[in-house]
Amino acid sequence: MGILGGNLRFVETNNNEIAARVPLQYPPQPPPELLFSDPTDGVYLGVTEFLNTPVYWNPKYLTNPHIVIVGISGSGKSYTIKTFLLRASYVWKANAVIIDWTGEYMDWVTQTNGKVISLGQGNYLNIMDLGGMKPYARIQQIVNTLDLLIDISRNEEQKRLLEWALETAYLNAGFRLDSNEQYDPLGRPLEPPTLKDVVKLLEEKLELEANPYIKRELQALIYKLKQFTRPGEDFFANKSTLSLDELINSGLVDINLAGLPSEPMRALGALTILQFIKEKMRTEDFRKIKGIRLFVVIDEAWKISGEENSDVVMIVREGRKYGFSMIIASQNPTDIAQSIFSNAGTVLILKVKFENFLNYLQGSLRFSDFVREKIQGFGVGQAAMYLSYYVSGNFSNTVIISKIEGETIVKDYFIMLNVIEGDTMGSVSITREEFRSKLRAKGIDIKSVENISSSFEKNNNRLDVIEFTKIMLLEGIERKIIVEFLKELGVEDQTIAKAIQRAQMKIRGGDKIVEVKI
Fold first, then answer.
1. Structural domain 135-226, CATH architecture
2. pTM over 0.85
3. How far apart are CA 229 and CA 130, in angstroms?
């Protein structure tokens, strides 16, 4: 419709042309009364990109208190977790347990006067501790956990034999299988058996067994279990040195799993701790307390968050039942079970680069193409936040946050991607803490880590990718590790290959070398 010579003129047009004439367009966002209804009873994260509305996380309005955070390395994922935990401790005096796969949070927890417990370095966790459960219930948990890690249920006979050995071990130690009260005749608490007792029972049965089929299954089961009971690797087959009460009531606690020798051992430690926490919180019923009193962080734990029959998935599905909040984080969203995305009360999406990851997220959360494009263009700390509210309305459940506003200044290291002089290919960044923990997780000794960090700090926290690669090579770090590290930061293969080639030329004083292939 237009005006011509004082008269109205009707013109046929389409929606796209009309939309193009609108001077201001904002995507719908949750109403302010949901985003910041009570600033004294929520965790502040930042402001919305378009309307500058403050965003406070408050589980009171959400379907459940569990949070998923995804984003590529350097996008601000671990910084978001640290900021969130600090603010939650201010608002609700909340405790936090970080199940730390690679030791990434160890330095930060120490700096904040928290407690670091390193499994595999003098600390033990007996997986047959009851944690307040009846033996029957704990036996089922142990069977399910071992099934997740070493495929017990593929063979019904092995599962039956394991259940028999677990029950017999508890009975031999004086436990009643259907009771929470476990004391000896003098009223002293009974000492739980260990996985070593279970293996011993199976070995004794093997010696007496005549049936060739059962004999084979016993041998296979013993072999699978012995990876957890060998001397020097028996971190979960000795008397516990950890106190569960102390674990969940000590402020900020980092359970460092980096010292454990294998992925199955780290998964076993993580699942056992999570099961004990779940039972403890359920029996003490912290749900009656205002806010959240305990957060449990699970970062990059693909084995326990990607399997549909994992305790992690069950806890998210059952929402508020256990009275604590889980924060599940990963660089790769496909490492997290889709049912976690479908049931989590909150999903924070920082920069995500790969199309298949975006397809997975968009298929799980059903956000718009507009939000998808924003995610691809995010800088460090920008986030899309999906909120599953109790109430429904004519608004989007996803809001764009301009930047996660942190508690402290984070020192970032920048790697400039100009592989040829004059190139302007941008940069990638990573926090100093994450940089150091990643190198340590790849087996690089502390002296080399200090030398590389020092090189950044002498150059205003910036190194071009060629100089960075040269320093890594001079420290004796394998090319494979350098390639892997840069790829995790999102650097393209072609850039990495050129950087290694030119770094080697610099080291050799300009000698021509063969082309590097990734």
1. Orthogonal Bundle (1.10)
2. no
3. 19
